[in-house]
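User: I'm writing a tutorial on reading structure tokens. Could you give me a worked example: one chain, its sequence, then its tokens, then a sentence or two explaining what the tokens reveal?
Assistant: Sure. Here is the example chain.
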Amino acid sequence: MAPSPPGMPAPATTTAMLDLLLQPLAEPFFVRALLAIVLSGTTCACLGAYVVLRRMAFVSTALTHSILPGVVGALLLGLSPYLGALVAALLTATGAAWLASRKGTSEDSAVGVMLSVMFAGGIALMQQANSWRDFAGLLFGSVVSVGREDLIVIGVTAALVLFGLRVLHKELELASFDEEYAALLGARPALMRAVLLVLVALGAVACVRLVGALLTTALFVIPAATGVLLGRTVPQVMAWGAGCALLGGFGGLYLSYYAPAVPSGAGIVLCCALPYLAARLFAPRR
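And here are its predicted structure tokens:
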């Protein structure tokens, strides 16, 4: 048999690579996970653009970590974990806003207090379960646990968040760059900040099954930080961020499939970090 022309891969190698790519697609749970990462990754990347531009990474971390007691409590009571996550995230946002409005308490301190209290409450609730293994997927993500009902919730949540961003994009963009000028134009930056917190809470709810409560914030921050390095406008930041989230999401899912010891959430976050590192090293400085 004649050797392959120079520069052309051997047929056996090509077939093996195609098998590696196509074999997971025969699994229904893997296809559902891919759809989930498309929806949640795009949503979080678009939200993350405003989170990063407004320097709210710590606030988003608090919101995403604070869903832990809500999800655990809902599971213990036999309720929907999404409902528990949403209630916990909104409670954190409301509590932090109330504490920050009191004299002598900065916003960072208020957010830190709520994060500590909610996360400690989640750990206390987890002690009521028979085994911490029951919450491994909740903490670190599990592609196997993404079902049809989860896809519906993620899809509805993504539609609500993206619709909200589309309607309020002018006000959010203006308030992200210059709050004083936005206030003069009637954009109400304080209200836009509150709306953004609610949208982040919704986005966190959509990601909890896929990447887990501990790593959800990474989908808001890492892709958007990559977009900031590569894009010059907010839409460009969103586009680059969405591309990073999808690339990292797909790569993480395949990594988790072929290396079952790696939780899906950890795999997705690690793969999202690779485009960021590449952009950090090679993107032109501005």
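What the tokens reveal: The longest helix spans residues 28-53. DSSP finds 14 helices and no strands in the chain.
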